[in-house]
Each structure stands twice: as structure tokens, then as C-alpha cells.
């Protein structure tokens, strides 16, 4: 029974998404709209393929550089810590 409810909910969401897409598309012909959609898909691909990977790599690099807390127990900045300025 839960599967049927989930399927109905998914179908309702899909219908809402399609109606929203049609509203956003407006009066543009579907043949012309494909250029917009393909451009957005390309940008998402670039984001996921290159930018996300480089961001994760940079985070890992900074985490590896970090030797612990930036602040000493006394509350003064740790002298060994070099802040990352990009």
C-alpha cells in the first residue's frame, strides 16, 4: 500500500513539474526551447564534472594542511596556523 501512495505522490509531483516547465517556457516553440534546456544541462555537467571536483579537492587540501584548532587554549591565535587566502 505504501508503494502505491509513493507512486501516486511521485506522479503528482511529476505533473506539477511538467506544468511548471510549460509555464516557464511560455510562448517559445519546443524546438527553440531545446537550446535553453541543452545549455542548462551543459552548465550542470560542467558544474558537476569540474567545479565540484576542484572544490572538493581544495577542501581536502585545506583539511590536510590544518593541524588542529586555529585557536590556542589561551584564546590567542595559534602562531603555526597560516590562513588560506585565495
TrEMBL record:
Transcription regulation is among the record's keywords: no
One Pfam assignment: HsdM_N
The protein, known as: N6 adenine-specific DNA methyltransferase N-terminal domain-containing protein
Stretches for region Disordered: 65-86
Keywords: Restriction system
Coiled coil: none
All copies of domain N6 adenine-specific DNA methyltransferase N-terminal, residue ranges: 16-65
Organism: Lamprobacter modestohalophilus
